[in-house]
Specification:
about 500 residues; alpha/beta; 4-stranded mixed sheet; about 10% strand
């Protein structure tokens, strides 16, 4: 998998900055957080401010009190705006961000949110498309579930963000890994990063129950990561040591104790963590289906995983309900989203740690992770009344989020308030810096879901004939892909 030198540089910087700031991290779990942690939180916030100081390059702008309307989707956690400060650190940071943006640009932000998650995404896209085609400029910015913005781009409903100078994609609040993968030719139709809390919440990670490490005298998982030895084989080996047939029925089932558990939908991360991708880019930045998507390494990975889930009693793959099993104190390692720590684990007494997704093998230089699909992307619709203003608002919101919202969520809430040991901070930095994106995964709705469902379904059904299955699907996949590229490059 191609990864830029910039990406690796960011990864190294993130880890180094964490090692410097780690001494400021509090090790208490959420139930024990009280006023006595105030000094620790202040120290952490001060460290975060030191790292996240970079200003944007926006000039002094005055849009005359214009109303800027953001069309978004209903979310369970704050994203676009909040009504008032309520004492929650992330909520209040979003409130401050929006007021700051309004004051800097002399605008008023307004937000409309409708259902637009996984099961409502088609209707959300239809609503935005109808509004855009009406041409009345009702929406200045649209921001929604990742797949929906890709669909809008495919429908030619979004402007090319590279055409607007206020957007500076060299700034750290716009992750280069996303920009590189989402762009096509000299166009980029959507963006995200610090502007979205969901970009952090929906990172994939591997949790572990610290009790198991002590009770079974297992290797320190953090040191395995640091040594580059946190691999699939190491996961298999450790997982096999903690299986217990708790219900005594003589068979492996969901009521037992396991070394590793994940849900089918979260298993997508194992493909990309192995350094694989579905697409590559040519010299003109035009994507094409990667040979490695249907190649020997993908075949070997699938066989390895299927064999482990089938023959290793310590490994279990389920189709839903996996969170409850980890919460029942019966799982050592568990792959899911970072959101899990901010919701379920903050209210539990389970002492947990967090790790990146394991590498394919020790020869693989870097750890990689991906985001679950609910992360949000943002774009400017074709009929926006003042695209330059929309671009300025996006840049201002992203840069202010970089300095206020992300430190509150990432540096204080996740690393301190919800963390149960001091090493968590280092791991979070590594996970966030290793987040990668894939053009085929981003645009999967335009490809009939083939860029994620084929591998996921093969794993769940135990079908190891990957290369032959992929070959049979090549004609359909290429036809859909050519149509997508044709739509996106029509005016180039």
């Amino acid at each position: 998998m191609k990864r830029s030198l910039l990406f690796r540089g960011l990864l190294c910087l993130a880890v180094l900055s964490t090692l410097t700031a780690a001494s400021c991290s509090d090790t208490d779990t959420e139930p024990s957080v009280s006023d006595t942690t105030a000094e620790t939180e202040i120290q952490t916030e001060t460290a975060a401010e030191t790292v996240m100081y970079e200003p944007d390059n926006l000039p002094e702008l005055d849009f005359g009190g214009a109303n800027v309307h953001i069309f978004g989707r209903t979310t369970d956690i704050p994203e676009y705006s909040v009504e008032e400060e309520n004492g929650d650190i992330v909520n209040d940071a979003i409130f401050v961000r929006n007021r700051t943006v309004e004051e800097r640009l002399n605008i008023t932000l307004s937000v409309t949110q409708i259902d637009g998650g996984n099961y409502d995404r088609a209707q959300w896209v239809k609503t935005v498309t109808q509004s855009t085609m009406a041409g009345d400029g009702a929406n200045d910015i649209v921001g929604g579930y990742s797949m929906t913005l890709a669909s809008l781009a495919n429908e030619r409903m979004l402007l090319n963000l590279y055409d607007y100078s206020y957007l500076d994609f060299d700034k750290p609040w716009w992750p280069p890994s996303l920009n590189e993968e989402a762009s096509i030719g000299d166009a980029l139709y959507f963006c995200s990063g610090d502007i979205s809390t969901h970009m952090i919440y929906y990172l994939y990670a591997t949790y572990f129950n610290r009790k198991f490490i002590t009770d079974y005298d297992l290797e320190d998982p953090y040191q395995l990561v640091r040594d580059g030895r946190w691999t699939l084989d190491k996961l298999y080996q450790i997982s096999s040591q903690v299986y217990r047939d708790l219900n005594g029925d003589g068979k492996k089932d969901g009521e037992d104790q396991f070394g590793y558990l994940t849900d089918t939908v979260y298993a997508d991360s194992l493909f990309f963590a192995a350094g694989l991708n579905t697409t590559e880019k040519d010299a003109d930045n035009i994507p094409y289906i990667s040979e490695e998507f249907g190649g020997e390494k993908a075949q070997a990975l699938l066989e390895s995983l299927i064999n482990a889930f089938k023959t290793n009693n310590g490994m279990l793959l389920v189709d839903g309900g996996s969170e409850d099993t980890f919460m029942a104190d019966r799982i050592l390692f568990y792959t899911t989203e970072v959101f899990f720590a901010a919701t379920k684990l903050r209210n539990t007494e389970i002492e947990y740690g967090i790790l990146p997704i394991p590498k394919y093998d020790e020869a693989q230089e870097d750890y990689y992770t991906i985001s679950s699909f609910p992360y949000n992307l943002f774009g400017i619709p074709l009929d926006a009344k003042d695209p330059e203003m929309s671009a300025a608002v996006l840049e201002c919101m992203a840069s202010e989020s970089y300095r206020t919202v992300s430190p509150a969520l990432f540096e204080t809430a996740l690393k301190v308030k919800y963390a149960s040991d001091s090493d968590v901070s280092e791991m979070y930095d590594l996970i966030r810096a290793s987040n990668c994106f894939d053009f085929g995964r981003i645009f999967n709705d335009s490809l009939n879901g083939m860029t994620y469902t084929m591998f996921r379904d093969s794993l769940f059904k135990g079908q190891t004939e990957w290369m032959s299955k992929f070959q049979k699907s090549t004609k359909v996949l290429n036809r859909l892909f050519d149509k997508l590229i044709g739509n996106l490059t029509e005016d180039m």
